[in-house]
Amino acid sequence: MNFQQRLNQHVRSAREDQPVKMRVEALGALRNMTFATDNEVHMWNDVQGCRAVVLRSAREDQPEELRVLALKALYNMACAADNQGPMWNDVQGCRAIVLRSAREDQPEEVRVLALFAQRYRNHFSKAHTRLVGVMAPSTDLTDDQMMPHAPAEPDVAEGMGGGGAKGSKRQRLA
After folding, report:
1. How many domains does the chain have?
2. 3-state secondary structure of 76
3. What range does the domain containing 85 cover?
4. Which CATH number is 47's domain given?
5. For position 92, what pLDDT does the model report?
């Protein structure tokens, strides 16, 4: 089975009409696929498939276990410099979900992951500036509101390539 076939299989299994247990396994597989730097841009660009199912799974009305896996997948996809501008500019989708997930009334693990993802705001803004020549719009939340006490780093795994100098290491959410 090739990459696209595996991606499509996991996307189908992660849809909302599937049992939660199957969705958790499928989202875990999608999150694992984001560890390969060659996959992250393709996965984000699969608008009707991977992107749609990950964003839907990260919504507030979804079980926490699904939200955690979806936020980890989003964070890992954001490690690709080519994704950072488009992800931040997805105001009604990715950005809105991450910002809502960072609110104080959210479950702790969801909030920590969203706050950790917010560290990419600078990267998103830099990518936006390179693309259109102006700074990206500011968020509704300030750093003080979002991180009055910096959260502990979530579990990470090191990945190779992308996001920096050739062959550089970066942290990926496991």
Report:
1. 1
2. helix
3. 3-173
4. 1.25.10
5. 92
For residues 37 and 45, what is the distance between their CA atoms, to the nearest angstrom?
14
Q: Which of 1, 2, 23 lies closest to 12, judged by CA?
A: 23
> Could you tell me the two tokens for 21?
């247990």
CA dihedral 103, 42, 7, 14 (to 10 degrees): 20
Tokens representing 110 are 């969801």
User: Tens of pLDDT along 129-169?
Assistant: 444 444 444 444 444 443 334 344 444 444 333 333 333 34
Q: What is the mean pLDDT of the chain?
A: 77
Tell me what pLDDT residue 84 has: 85
Closest CA to 30 of 47, 48, 13, 45: 13
**Cβ atoms 91, 99 nearer than 8 A:** no
